[in-house]
Write a structure and sequence with these properties.
The complex is a heterodimer. Chain A is an all-alpha fold. Helix content of chain A is 73%, strand content 1%. By secondary structure, chain B is mostly helical. In chain B, helix 3 runs antiparallel to helix 8 and helix 4 crosses helix 6. The longest helix of chain B has 44 residues. Classes of the chains: A mainly alpha, B mainly alpha.
Chain lengths: 305, 293
């Protein structure tokens, strides 16, 4: 092969390499494009609503009667419903998720640790419709009987089932964060005479705090966006709740339940897409905050001492 | 501090520790009980419904009797379709992120995009699928629209798993190949990718499990209440296991009457999804144990 030919070969090879690199880059960038596309199509189908009512009336209106004449599209009760179930689910899921993460990362013997990790992964794999079904046929009737309620499908029920969905997220992400704390931190603490408990509470958890906060935020984002559980067990009443045993209709449940019946491109249809925009924006904010925290405070290594 | 107060303060500190460890163990126990409680309950109530006819016959008598075969077939079509969409796209994205991209603004944006995509609620994917695939691209409610929607939903899972698998391939493998004069592309295709393959497959299997259990994304894009015949093309609607459970448990006048069918369908879905997950978990631990490098 002449020198010229080799040169030419290398050049085409190089061009090929660059082409492949750019092609792959485009496909990787597709995730970002898809995110934009999702937003675009939510807007396309949702924005026409605001020719009919104002954004403030939509967000803070307290009456959701999309099928009445004239219809009312106030989603405040739906927002409150979403926030209520997410809040109470977090009250259960955060302690359980965090404590189980501490157990796995710091206390459990290797064998139990492996088993428990698999259990949590399987729990994460339970389809939401299965949890919704379980809440309907078991937890619901039990709540109704025990507390003598008109219905067992309420905030309480939805919160418990949502907590089961959020625990795996919180637990596994917290465990990663705890696990990443440098060994020197622990050893220094023991050397000062601290007990294992004191080391975990005062050294390890504070050092892992950014990761743990990220885990909690992502767990809550999971709960607020969860659909089938709240659709099946939250009770479906589009009213502002007064207690934990009241039925609610979170945003996700409203979309899932009503989209099938809403006439194509009617006000109702647009209102459900607009609700989707609100949901998208809330979960996007949660994710961006989580991303910010985990990047901003990532450098908790021995070098930062 | 004299010896006595020291001793009692030590005792108090260890008591605190004991209480804390107790709470920690209790939480682990509660989580375990939640999983096995749910599984045991579904199994106990569902196994009687599982017969050969249940698995191989379509529903009859306005879905109060008969089997769930069309729903099983529909779920298979949707998940296979989803993985056909997500696997190539996810692996290519992961290759770019781990092998090509320099750490910088572009990778940062891509990573944020992937993370945010992973956080989009499933029902919003459903809305997107409806607005884009069903209405805008005129696919109608169909296997194609549902599979594409599910594929986008599991894309972040696949990217994450593939990235992890690629990162686990030792740098020396790549260096050895490049040192022999092999091009970058051939190094990736012949050396890195085959070494990462088991890990990527594990991720793909987990993605399949996720896609099979999702309900909200297919409600407006693919799922049919009832079809008498199996789908003939990718533009047909299908029944799907998760949606079938939802329909039987919430709609219609025969909710109590069809409880056994509901338990049976739930059991089939759980067996399918957790079976898939278990395969992935076992595969992963085998890969870890048999690692040759």
């Amino acid at each position: 092969m002449s020198a010229m030919k080799i040169r030419k070969n290398i050049l085409t090879l190089h061009a090929k390499e660059i082409a492949i690199r750019n092609l792959f880059g485009f496909f990787a960038f597709l995730s970002v494009l898809l995110l934009g596309l999702i937003l675009l199509f939510l807007f396309r189908e949702g924005l026409p609503l605001f020719k009919k009512i104002s954004l403030a009336d939509f967000l803070f209106g307290t009456a959701w009667y999309p099928t009445y004449e004239p219809p009312e599209y106030g989603i405040w009760p739906l927002i409150v419903g979403s926030l209520a179930v997410t809040f109470f689910a977090s009250l259960i899921a955060v302690p359980l998720g965090l404590l189980s993460a501490v157990y796995i990362a710091e206390i459990a013997p290797t064998r139990i640790k492996e088993i428990l990790k698999s259990i949590i992964e399987l729990l994460a794999g339970l389809p939401s419709v299965v949890l919704g079904f379980f809440g309907m046929v078991i937890v619901g009737p039990w709540l109704q009987e025990t507390f003598d309620l008109p219905t067992g499908l309420n905030i309480m029920n939805a919160s418990v089932m949502l907590a089961i969905m959020a625990i795996p997220t919180i637990s596994s992400l917290s465990e990663d964060a705890l696990y990443a704390v440098p060994r020197e931190f622990k050893e220094a603490s023991y050397a000062l005479g601290a007990t294992k408990y004191e080391t975990i509470i005062r050294v390890i958890i504070p050092a892992a705090l950014s990761g743990v906060s990220t885990a909690v935020i992502l767990g809550m984002a999971r709960a607020i966006g969860e659909t089938m559980v709240v659709l099946m067990v939250a009770g479906g009443a589009a009213a502002i709740p007064e207690g934990i045993f009241d039925a609610v209709r979170p945003m996700t449940a409203s979309i899932a339940a009503e989209m099938g019946e809403a006439p194509f491109r009617s006000g109702h249809y647009h209102a459900l897409f607009a609700t989707g925009i609100v949901l998208f924006v809330i979960t996007l904010a949660f994710n961006l905050i989580a991303d910010y925290i985990s990047n901003r405070f990532r450098e908790t290594g021995s070098g930062t001492l | 501090m004299n010896g006595k107060t020291f001793k009692s303060s030590m005792r108090a500190r260890y008591l605190k520790q004991k209480l804390f460890f107790g709470a920690v163990r209790l939480s682990a126990l509660l989580i375990t009980l939640a999983l096995f409680g749910i599984l045991a309950y579904i199994l106990a109530n569902g196994f009687r419904a599982i017969t050969w006819e249940f698995l191989t016959q379509p529903p009859t008598d306005s879905m109060t009797k008969g089997g769930i075969m069309p729903a099983i077939v529909g779920t298979l079509y949707l998940t296979v379709g989803a993985i056909l969409v997500a696997l190539p796209l996810g692996v290519v994205s992961a290759i770019f992120l781990t092998e090509y991209a320099k750490q910088g603004a572009l990778t940062r944006i891509i990573r944020i995009g992937v993370n945010c995509l992973a956080g989009v609620p499933s029902v919003v994917f459903g809305l997107f699928g409806l607005g884009f695939f069903v209405v805008f691209l005129k696919f109608g409610s169909s296997i194609l629209a549902g599979a594409l929607t599910l594929g986008i939903l599991i894309l972040p899972t696949i990217i994450g798993a593939a990235e992890e698998a690629l990162k686990a391939v030792p740098q020396t493998f790549r260096e050895a190949s490049l040192a022999l004069g092999v091009s970058k592309w051939n190094t990736i295709f012949r050396i890195t990718l085959p070494s990462a393959l088991p890990g990527i497959l594990t991720g793909a299997i987990l993605g399949v499990g996720r896609a099979a259990g999702e309900t909200a994304p297919i409600m407006f894009t693919a799922a049919a209440f009832f079809t008498a015949v199996l789908p003939k093309s990718i533009f047909d609607e299908v029944m799907a296991l998760p949606y079938h459970i939802y329909v039987l448990a919430t709609a219609g006048t025969h909710i109590e009457e069809t409880r056994p069918l509901q338990y049976g369908t739930v059991l089939v879905l759980i067996a399918l999804v957790l079976g898939i997950d278990l395969i992935a978990i076992v595969m992963r631990s085998m890969i870890r144990r048999n690692k040759r490098w």
